[in-house]
Amino acid sequence: MAIDGLIILEPNGRPIIQTNFKTTSAAYPLLHIDAFNNALAKSTNGQIDPVLYVSAHHGPSACCHIECGGGLRLLCPVSGDVDALYVFAFLQLFHDTLQDYLGEISSSSLRDHFDVVYQLLEEMLDNGHPLTTERSALRDIVLPPSLLDKILSVAGVSGLAKASANPFASPIPWRKLGIKYNNNEIYFDLVEDLRAIVHKFVKINLKNL
Question: Does the record's keyword annotation contain Transport (predicted)?
Fold first, then answer.
């Protein structure tokens, strides 16, 4: 079960960024881009099926897509026996990661941070299989864009801000490296739940009988 690749389309339907489709022909991603643009052009309300069937000489395939804000679209061409929910889960995860790194996702923000987006693609999708998807681990590998990074790159200064030399040293992927606490303590919230059957006793005043 693998994803053939990922394509980011601009609002005008042209690709702005895409992964390297190693196992397919050069025309393979273009077929899915054309299939999406044709379906969108035929739609009267701008709504199309989230999974599009694509027919070509190499065999049938599908194009899964989601909206990425600002009119951008994320496309995933897939072939073979691939669960669509598996693809959409990765698309949503990549969208959330882009939003976490760039803030507002737009054509201009993607162009300004081409290097960061391509690094995320390389780390998150390895030969069609999701690889590093935990954001704490990603931030140790791919530095988030910042004004300081831009200034250093323009000035030609390198080595002042770089990722961890051993990003996978933490045994817990969601916990950042170097976190220490003064007190070795742990706290628990206990919730007690008592389930019982209580008999009702009736007291009878015999004097009134």
Answer: yes
